[in-house]
Amino acid sequence: MKVLAVHPSALMYTKVFLRLEPLGLELVAGAARDAGHDVQLIDLQAETHKDYWALLDSFQPDVVCFSGNYLANVPEIIDLCRATRVRYPDIFQFIGGHSVSFIARDVLALSEGAVNCILKGEGDASIGLLLRALEDGKDLLSVPGVVTMDGEGPPPVFVESLDAIRPARDLLRHRNKYFIGTLDPAASIEFARGCPWDCTFCSAWTFYGRSYRTASPTVIADELEEIKEPGIFIVDDVAFVHEEHGMAIANEIKKRGIKKEYYLETRADVLLRNKEVFKVWSEIGLSYIFIGMEAVDEEGLKQFRKRVSLDKNFEALEYARSLGLIVAINIIADPDWDRARFEAVRQWCLEIPEIVNISVTTPYPGTEIWHKEARRLTTRDYRLFDIQHAVLPTKLPLPEFYEELVKTQQVLNTKHMGWEALKDTAGIAGRLLLKGQTNFVKMLWKFNSVFNPKLQLADHMRKARYLMPIQPDVVDSVDRKDLYVHGPGGRKTRALDDATEQFVDKTRMSENA
């Protein structure tokens, strides 16, 4: 069969700071190709809807699959599915990915028949089975993870091994368009999949059932040798949870003489526990590290169920600095913040050398705060669920909240971007321009055209064609098994030694498996 894999357009944040290759969709495309199908891929972050229609006309696929990892992309995906159904009524269309896995029936209903099914869970595990069922005329509801308006198939399954799957990187037509910070161009790679923690605002653990699986160091090194880009973004939700695994990858890289520059995300407590791993990685190319602090006070950390003290957070920042790493941290702005709170956060952020990103508290389906957030949603417009818009009632009038939010972001932006930043990175920018890489340089001046309080407020005024499901009634406790996409498999699903498993349990707020 001929299969076209489609990644939707960029979101607000990714229009400025980064544009990452669609690794998840490449893995799904690779699995489809391994199953014997003819596959093409288009990424609308780097191409246009006009390009989509041109490829659809020339390729004439039997199947079109869309990546639904982000709620804010849902309206665009549904519109494309509807328009495709009108032009090509016989094409089979389905959507997979992280976010749609939690709201499968809602998305199907909104599509009004344009979408044939949702494929929940790990798409690279089930796409071959789905395509075979289509070819053989079998019941789709026999396929793990399939949801149709008629029912739901068996529970989603995991890929048998992360070593056995390979992303179809060659299908991406504009590889020089992907970057993160000064890593331009940059490819993405997966060392491990899943997260053993259980933060209230996050749906990584509910998607993967608190599992944590790793690829072997030799397979990872093989893939790194094949990647042509000099920059590498490690997509793991929490990098180097398992010290032995992180060190084994580093040793394999050193043995082969692989020269890359790396960017990763981790937790402060993981960094402090596995200091030697991060030290070794800083010696083989790790340049950037992102730490999700989320809050600058103990009450905020408790709210997000991050059992990491402020002292430990600051200790982690200090250690990262000692390694010469460029550190970025994330702070979650709560809609209850007033002007004084915004000002205090601005001052704190200016006193530290780290790059600070501000996002907005957003209840997502699949998270505990979706069920426990006592404040009711003020909008159900999918497009606003991008962690840059307020979807809960704000203490300040909404126009003032956005003024303070963008003012805070602008202060932090000025600290690290624009002319001042160019002075510090002139050599990097010059080298990139000589190579024809303009992503990073363009980024330096795009902020004000994207982050604008009037534009953000105007987004609330747009008529919403598609509405999210109604938020459930507030509850004090949630049956966590009801949140999972992949059911919890307990200890056996986590590739951690006993000491690391105990460390994870001690740094979680919940004692449930």
Automatic annotation (TrEMBL):
Keywords: Iron, Iron-sulfur, Metal-binding, Methyltransferase, S-adenosyl-L-methionine, Transferase
The keyword Iron appears for this protein: yes
Domain of life: Bacteria
Record carries keyword Methyltransferase: yes
Gene3D superfamilies: Aldolase class I, Cobalamin-binding domain
Record domain Radical SAM core: where: 181-395
B12-binding domain residues: 8-141
Lineage: Bacteria, Pseudomonadati, Pseudomonadota, Alphaproteobacteria, Acetobacterales
Name of the protein: B12-binding domain-containing radical SAM protein
Cofactors named for this entry: [4Fe-4S] cluster
One Gene Ontology term, aspect cellular component: cytosol
Gene Ontology terms for molecular function: catalytic activity; cobalamin binding; iron-sulfur cluster binding; metal ion binding
Organism listed in the record: Acetobacter persici
CDD domains from the UniProt entry: Radical_SAM, radical_SAM_B12_BD
Pfam families: B12-binding, Radical_SAM
